[in-house]
Amino acid sequence: MAPAMTRLPVTVVTGFLGSGKTTLINRALRDPGLRNTAVIVNEFGDIGLDHDLIEASSDAVILLENGCLCCSVRGDLVDTLVDLHRRRQRSEIAPFDRVLVETSGLAEPTPVLEVLLSEPGVRSCFSLAGIVAAVDAVNGPDTLDRHEQSIKQVALADRIVLTKCDIAGATDGIEAQLRRLNPSAEIVDARGLDPGRLFTALPDTWSDQALAAAGAQPDEAHAHRDHNSRVRRFSVTRDAPWSMETLRLFVDALQTNAGPSLLRVKGIINVAESPDAPAVIHGAQQLVHSLAWMRGWPSADRRTRIVFITLDAGAGDIEDLIDYIERLSTRTRSVRERAAGA
Q: How far is C-alpha 91 from the chain's CA centre?
């Protein structure tokens, strides 16, 4: 009898918009023990950025876009996993020992689990190692109260990673809330996290009964009603670099106007004064992070690309704000140049 084929472990990384999933994955990929890792990223937006922001440990970083894994992209996930394994077997890509699947912030992880547990072509090659949910300690309590997807993400997790604890201060309240939703999950503070341990395999507890107990719904009952009724996603792109002044005004405007309607903003920004090191901006609800800078461009695309996911707010309002900032920056620069030449 031929020996049974070793199945590769798959860890699902979930969490609501802006909860810090990409940051967790980047930390993990720097760990030598997780060097040979393939990453599959799903984004709910009209342009993809997360695959550029992930510091890949191998060449196997794959973007599933134009939908969420709970609906239209599910078939793509099956095809991607099967194709990844085939290419690995044929040595067409760098070898990998495990897979991380980062879901969209608007997706619940149940359909991903169903793919791993029920699709024969996937199940023969891969096994579920566990679910890691990132929860923002600042916005988490309000997010859990308002968004059903975030509740399911927490309820299905094996491990819950509390992020932004240094900003939130005391976390007793959010931890108690998480315990009520998922008494069995391990809750860890991201600040003291061992990234190699984060994605170690856990016992297979994902039976049909466990999924049902967590509130999973069958495919035919799932619809995008929560995604489409009030959630808007759109992007702003610019071919010409921004000046530092424009960037500063943009960040100030976001920090002044951010609120519950701003579910997520993330972007790579081409800055004229730093052509080879783009700026990166992240924000979620009331919290807009300080700028970070990449060491270099992740691809040949050097346009400024900013993705917004909002509740009710439309693209027109955001475009009008950015247009105003660009005009204001131009006028300010002209005034300074005239004053300097006087």
A: 29
Do 282 and 219 reside in the same domain of the chain? no
Whether residue 244 sits in one domain with residue 222: no
Domain range for 170 is 8-226
Same structural domain, 263 and 169: no
CA gap 324, 312 in Å, rounded: 21
Q: What's the distance, CA 26 to chain centroid?
A: 11
- Per-10-residue mean pLDDT for the chain, 342 residues long? 67 89 82 82 54 46 46 66 88 85 81 78 87 90 86 85 86 89 84 74 42 34 41 82 91 78 80 92 70 84 84 74 88 75 64
CB half-sphere exposure, 297, CA atoms < 13 A: 13
DSSP code per residue over 105-170: TT--SHHHHHHHHH-HHHHTTEEEEEEEEEEETTTHHHHHHH-HHHHHHHHT-SEEEEE-HHHH--
Do 150 and 204 lie in a common domain? yes
* C-alpha–C-alpha distance, residues 251 and 314, integer Å: 19
- Beta strand 287-288 with 274-284 is antiparallel
State how far the Cα of 208 lies from the Cα of 218, in Å rounded to an integer: 11
Stated pTM of the model? 0.63
Distance, in Å, from the CA atom of 9 to the CA atom of 241, rounded to the nearest integer, reads: 42
